[in-house]
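User: Okay, second chain of the day. Same drill as before: sequence in, structure tokens out.
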Amino acid sequence: MWETEPYRIYKTAENRKARSQTVLNLMETVGLSRNLAGAYPHELDGGRRQRIGIARALALDPKFIVCDEPISALDVSVQAQILNLMQDLQQERALTYLFITHNLSVDKHISTNIMVMYLGKVMEFSPGEELFKHPTHPYTQALLSAIPVPDIDVQRQ
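Assistant: Same drill. Structure tokens below.
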């Protein structure tokens, strides 16, 4: 069974049975089968491990979660599943994410506002749609020009 210690420490579940049930409910919330409750990390693929990370982040019902490159090591189909899960959870639980990534196409998909940083300094901050339509800083323009376009007839600058 997954670790139930946070529930014991913060007294959010009355007893061992309630803690175990809370873990099983959380597994279901992030799309993990109950039969994986005793699995070790090396027995799981990247997508399932990422779901475990999401479940851990949700364990104590936060309102704000920092996501540092949450999909960088996953293949494209699993990336989409994880992003969709995160968006669903965001709406269901009224979550706010600070989403740290180098992948601006992901930012476009998930972010309301985007801050572009270079060497620890803010280069640009704007609503996501505005950033993609009218990037003002040369670094932002360079980042956007590096995004692959899935159209062989489009030439990049």
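The chain has a mean pLDDT of 90.

User: Thanks, on to the next one.
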